[in-house]
Amino acid sequence: MKEPIKAATETVNRLIQLLSSLPGIGPKSAQRLTYYLLRAPSETVRQLAEAISAVKQKTRLCSSCFNISDSEVCPICRSDERERSKICIVEQPQDILALEHIGVYQGLYHVLHGAISPTEGVGSDDIRIKELMERLKNSRIDEVILATNPTLEGETTAMYLNRLISPLGIRVTRLARGLPFGTELEYADDVTLTHAIEGRQEF
Predict the structure, then answer these.
(1) What is the CATH number of the domain that holds 74?
(2) 14 with 100, same domain?
(3) CATH code at 26?
(4) Per-residue pLDDT reduced to its tens digit, 55-97
(5) Which residues pair with 89 in a beta bridge?
(6) pTM score
(7) DSSP H helices in 84-151
(8) What is each CA distance from 141 to 64, 101, 161, 187, in whole angstroms?
């Protein structure tokens, strides 16, 4: 019996395989993207390839808040218009995008790059908690807003941070419970996020 003829070339199959390994993209979506790129103008494909390469080569973590940045210090930390007495703690850089989109919060941020998860082997030393504590001790911060995700890992991280920060005499608040448990900030709608940030409560 003859082997079935492959419908796509090795090059095409390789791109489909790589695209389908990205979060949120299944095999069907990867196929659609691949054949879109095959039909797209060469200039469009070149610009996309350059943008992907630049993301890895030219971005870094802000030396202050650990957000994604093109320079040593990110635009938010550099801005003179931000409230420098408040720090909002988030798990991932994309959480900042969600909060900035609603335009309610005007303070600074700190990105942990994860959450405490004993089941996955992630402890307090594996995320940016040490850097946060050094920052709090060396700055005049009046309020820390715990904006970790309303998940088991996020709640564990928030409780741990509250125990560390409270002895410093800094007000610790938590986003209001408008966020359903088990969801992530980046997927919350603007109205829910606005109520959560405006209605934040003492931890």
Answers:
(1) 3.40.1360.10
(2) no
(3) 1.10.8.420
(4) 989 999 999 999 999 999 999 999 999 999 999 999 999 999 9
(5) 110, 146
(6) 0.76
(7) 93-102, 129-137
(8) 14, 24, 15, 29
